[in-house]
Design a protein that fits this description.
Its EC number is 3.2.1.51. With 501 residues, the chain is of the alpha/beta class. Helix content is 23%, strand content 23%.
Length: 501
């Protein structure tokens, strides 16, 4: 009897001590996991195009054209922080090639314009990138940089008659068949930006480097992505590198702030390979070779740069955008461009605040709390403390419900204290160990009778389901219908009215 009892205790102890699940295929690097959690931040398109009423800067005006009359980067950062945005990414150099920082790589920089000279004479900074970075730090939001690989100013296929014979008439080195190496120039600019320092001498931390893939020229330039990546990794190891397809984050395939319901965080190509089309980028590749999640770049106005003829989208339109990207596990990078004064237009800030009010009103109605009873079809190793279903309600990102390795389908049930009116469901997979789930459903029950309210495919970082109509329920059941490895659920939440009956 002692032997049998000892054996039973040993079996229970062994089951309870089961290790955490092994990572499944590709997993996010720490910088990518932190990037996922930002969800929503600002794009700031600002430069000569703001003053020439262009988008791609083909006019090639001199730096004198850059002349904001009331520049206030603090107003940008405060406005974004007040609107609930996690950071901002500034166009340090757009396709026109004019640099907004004090670079040693080109004469084509705002520092050579009269506006900058007047500021310096008055003892003020004229380095737009440093000013924006300092404002972001002041208001507690993150800072990132856009540096266009395509450079019209150096592209021999793009006419620049107005600059002929001036100090801005620089060698046309963009292209594989030109004299000179554009990759060296770009690497030099990138190095300056990733080693940028605040006035106190500390390095500016960057959360994202945006290396645009757009080009309006027939000139063929093969970019040295490996060199660029090494520069970023060495100097800003916590920064995500965005490109058409990576390496850390990819384009979502459109510029309208939406993606399709099925979205995989992995793809199977790098920047050096043939580009995916828009539809492929939206969906991604299940079980792909690289963790390269999607980011949706979109605009509050029709254009990227500010144009007097345009008006901002409504808060309702932005809310729909949010649901179709953040609600589908894709980060939202919303462009909010300063006007010719150098400030964000009042009407744009007002819309951002209205949008925030809508998000808060929608999201701040949780019905599921840690006090509720939760049960599951099984628990990994019987270890409820580490892997139990109650973990989906604890609000932590490092805990989750898990089953045993060979179990890829299962369910958990959450009992409400009374009948509630539910109009939205939010689900999160524990992506730190990979994206696994390919099919799931949510059922709402009253007195043990259930009806299906959600049918999903991919889950990923976060999935928000806004139901077409409210449903009354006293219980919620999540069913995992398909998963390529044992599923890991980090969070389940229902939104709605807290008490019906």
């Amino acid at each position: 009897m002692l032997l049998l009892g000892g054996l039973s205790l040993w079996l229970v102890s062994t089951a309870a001590a089961q290790s955490v699940p092994s990572p499944y295929l590709q997993t996010p690097a720490p910088r990518q996991l932190a990037w996922h959690q930002l969800e929503y931040y600002a794009f700031v398109h600002f430069g000569p195009n703001t003053f020439t009423d262009e988008e791609w800067g083909r006019s090639q005006s001199s730096p004198d054209v850059f002349n904001p009359t009331a520049l206030d980067t603090d107003q940008w950062a405060k406005g974004f922080a007040d609107a609930g945005m996690a950071g901002m990414i500034l166009t340090a150099k757009h396709h026109d090639g004019m640099a907004l920082w004090d670079t040693n790589t080109t004469t084509y920089k705002i520092g050579n314009g009269q506006w900058a000279k007047d500021r310096l004479a008055a003892g003020l900074s004229a380095d737009m990138v440093r000013m924006a970075a300092a404002s972001a730090e002041k208001y507690g939001i993150k800072f990132g940089i856009y540096l266009s690989p395509w450079d019209i100013h150096r592209d021999p296929a793009m006419p620049k008659p107005g600059l002929s014979g001036t100090i801005y008439d620089e060698p046309q080195i963009f292209g594989d068949n030109t004299e000179g190496d554009y990759n060296d120039l770009y690497a030099g600019q990138l190095t300056e930006l990733v080693t940028l320092k605040y006035d106190n001498g500390s390095k500016v931390p960057l959360f994202e480097l945006w290396l645009d893939g757009a080009s309006g020229s027939d000139t063929v330039q093969t970019f040295d992505w490996a060199k660029f990546r090494d520069i970023i990794r060495e100097n800003q190891p916590d920064a995500a590198m965005w490109g058409h397809q990576g390496v850390d984050a990819r384009w979502v395939g459109n510029e309208d702030g939406f993606t399709v319901p099925t979205n995989w965080h992995t793809i199977s190509r790098t920047q050096d390979q043939t580009h995916y089309g828009g539809d492929e980028l939206q969906t991604g590749v299940r079980d792909g070779l690289y963790w390269t999640p999607a980011e949706a770049d979109a605009r509050i106005r029709d254009g990227w740069f500010w144009h007097a003829s345009e008006q901002p989208k409504s808060a309702d339109e932005l809310m729909q955008m949010y649901m179709e990207c953040v609600g589908r596990s894709v980060n939202l990078l919303l462009d909010v461009p300063p006007d010719t004064s150098g400030q964000i237009a009042t009407e744009d800030l007002e819309i951002l605040l209205q949008f925030k009010e809508q998000r808060v009103a929608f999201l701040n109605r949780p019905l599921l709390t840690t006090a509720l009873e939760v049960s599951a079809s099984s628990v990994r190793g019987g270890d409820s403390a580490r892997f139990g279903p109650a973990n989906v309600l604890d609000g932590r990102t490092d805990t989750y419900w898990a089953m045993n390795d060979k179990e890829t389908t299962g369910s958990l049930d959450i009992r409400l204290k009374s009948i509630q009116s539910i109009d939205a469901i939010i689900l999160q997979e524990h992506i730190a160990l990979g994206q696994r789930i390919g099919g799931y459903a949510v059922d709402a029950g009253v007195n043990g009778s259930y009806q299906r309210i959600v049918n999903g495919t991919s889950m990923g970082y976060k999935r928000i389901w806004n139901l077409t109509s409210s449903i009354e329920a006293d219980s919620i059941r999540l069913q995992i219908l398909q998963s390529n490895a044992t599923p890991l659920i980090s969070s389940v939440q229902a939104l709605g009215i807290t008490e019906v009956k």
